[in-house]
Design goal:
heterodimer, A: 139 residues, mainly alpha, two-stranded antiparallel sheet, 2 strands, B: 420 residues, alpha/beta, Aspartate Aminotransferase, domain 1, Aspartate Aminotransferase, domain 2, 2 domains, 7-stranded mixed sheet, 14 helices, globular
């Protein structure tokens, strides 16, 4: 399945269905592998998300209709899966919609807080924070 | 009181009687994700035995009071216990004088103290400070700050592919402008045991002073300041089975005596008036403010605990663990060790094909295996090897072959998940 065809609901449904922690990681890693290749031009310090132990990039693009689309990447597989998750949660929304989205609730639904190491969780929240800052700047 | 474990060496293998030692460490009653805790991050912070926890609690329950100033019995008892700790540190380091052992918050503060006090008084524009590629940030940044302030120059001893220092380059770097050589005893990131006796001797021949960061050495080997002839030596108690927030700066008496105080405040003065202040004697001149009293006493308990086991036994134990682990990890084609120096401490740093160190750390964590993943506060050596970080498994007196077996099983899972 192409990444554009995956919805956040698919991910939530699948996660609810998987009990094993390693299967969940496998699924997350697969999700990351399906991320469209990020344009090399975005791989700069300006688009780097600080607070992640691995390297993470998030690049915003504003569409003609005022929606924000994100490209993203990471050098760590599991984190790349989390980047994919961020895109599923936020990409294609207007800045106002992004700011109104409760990402924490989604992540809790995925039980990711409990299953990711604290450092990793910090990276996750750093991503959420960065997307919020970007949305604000376009509001 | 501290009960030394005198009979905990198991027969034949070189390993300590780990089951018996673990009884001293309450943390191992914990389960992680319902699995036994496999703790392989002693190089970051060692776990504390109940002897240390008891010492910290005992002082709090029986004679807790500010030290060095009370006329009442509690304060005098607490002062005695704190100063007993200093004598234990002196013996631990085989230092000549007890007042050469300054209590600090940790190695980082010790190095900053030397850089700010000795450094400001002795370093001028154009002077040179020699470090190595494999230093911890704590033994880089304080010198950079000093160099920036004074216009001094930092020189770096490089390493080869095994992370061993190039001693020929070091010999060439030394010159009449070299004022300080600051080197780690054992690298926290790649495990290299540096030839510090040679490094110190060569520094002295060039007229320079040598500081050794002994954080990774103090929990593992017998130290002797007089034999080493180190000018300064620092270590942190929390890497040596002791509390956080306390550590030691050893300095030769003549050097410490000549150094100006760093922090001003209580305890470090003899008399204070607005016309002028006279400073206290060593080591108090460098111990401004109320110290970490329970920490100092806990540190003594930790040193007593290690002495009770004995460093020959600790060495044999860690050598046996390393041999077992190196053999077990050699079975992974996808694994590459970073730091393969001939002389190595009790840690293995590695990377794997297919998975980032943080991926590996996360999958291991889920299996109850605690390792460090990252740059280990040593980015220059990571840059040298062209890596964002490594996975580091480090060993202590409470680890056994079972811990290494669980690490290996965890790494098989990593291979399975990330595809190899």
């Amino acid at each position: 399945m192409a990444f554009e065809d995956i919805s956040l609901n698919d991910v939530l449904d699948t996660f609810a269905f998987i009990d094993d922690w390693d299967e969940r990681y496998r699924y997350l890693i697969d999700l990351g592998r399906q991320l469209p290749l990020m344009d090399e031009a975005g791989r700069t310090d300006a688009f780097k998300v600080r607070g992640c132990q691995s390297q993470v990039w998030l690049v915003p693009h504003l569409s003609d209709r005022g929606c924000l689309f994100f490209e993203g990447d990471s050098d760590a597989h599991i984190v790349k899966g989390l980047v994919a998750l961020m895109l599923l949660i936020f990409s294609g929304k207007t800045p106002a919609e992004i700011l109104a989205t409760d990402a924490k609730a989604v992540l809790e639904q995925l039980d990711l807080k409990g299953h990711l190491s604290p450092m990793r969780a910090n990276g996750l929240f750093a991503m959420v924070e960065r997307i919020g800052v970007i949305a604000k700047s376009y509001e | 009181m501290v009960n030394a474990n005198l009979d905990i060496k198991s027969q034949g293998t070189g390993l300590l009687d780990v089951a018996k030692i673990r009884e001293d460490f309450p943390i191992f009653k914990q389960k992680v994700y319902s699995k036994p805790l496999t703790f392989l991050d002693t190089a970051a912070s060692a776990q504390k035995p109940k002897q240390v926890l008891d010492a910290e609690r005992n002082i709090s329950e029986t004679c807790y009071a500010n030290i060095h100033r009370g006329v009442y019995k509690f304060s005098q008892d607490a002062t005695q216990a704190y100063e007993d700790a200093r004598e234990t540190v002196r013996a631990f380091l085989s230092a000549e004088h007890t007042n050469e052992c300054v209590f600090v918050r940790g190695a980082t503060e010790g190095i900053n103290l030397v850089a700010q006090s000795w450094g400001r008084a002795n370093i001028s524009a154009g002077d040179e400070i020699i470090l190595t590629t494999i230093e911890h940030h704590s033994n880089i940044v304080p010198w950079q700050m000093l160099a920036e302030e004074k216009g001094a120059i930092i020189r770096v001893i490089p390493v080869d592919d095994t992370a061993t220092l190039d001693m020929d380059v070091y010999a060439n770097l030394l010159n009449e402008r070299t004022k300080m050589v600051a080197v780690g005893h054992i690298s926290n990131a790649v495990g290299t045991i540096n030839p510090i006796a040679d490094i110190i001797r060569m520094a002295h021949s060039a007229g320079a002073v040598a500081l050794i960061d002994g954080c990774q050495a103090a929990p593992h080997m017998r130290l002797n300041m007089q034999a080493l002839d180190a000018d300064f030596y620092v270590f942190s108690a929390h890497k040596a089975y002791g509390p956080t927030g306390i550590g030691v700066l050893y300095g030769k008496q003549a050097l410490l005596d000549a150094m100006p105080p760093w922090h001003g405040g209580g305890d470090m003065i003899k008399t204070v008036s607005f016309e002028g202040t006279t400073y206290n004697d060593l080591p108090y001149k460098f111990e401004a403010g109320t110290p970490h009293i329970t920490g100092g006493i806990g540190m003594k308990a930790a040193l007593d605990y290690m002495n009770g086991i004995g460093f020959d036994a600790i060495n044999a134990h860690e050598n046996a663990l390393m041999a077992y682990a190196l053999d077990a990890l050699s079975g992974f084609n996808s694994l590459r060790q970073i730091g393969t120096s001939k002389d190595r401490g009790a840690l293995i740093s590695f990377v794997m094909d297919h998975a980032h160190p943080h991926d590996i750390g996360t999958i291991l964590d889920r299996q109850g295996v605690a390792v460090r993943a990252g740059h280990h506060c040593a980015q220059p050596v990571m840059d040298h090897f062209g890596l964002p970080g490594t996975v580091r498994a480090s060993f202590g007196i409470y680890n056994d072959y079972g811990d290494i077996d669980r690490l290996v099983a965890g790494l098989h899972k990593v291979n399975e998940i990330f595809g190899s």
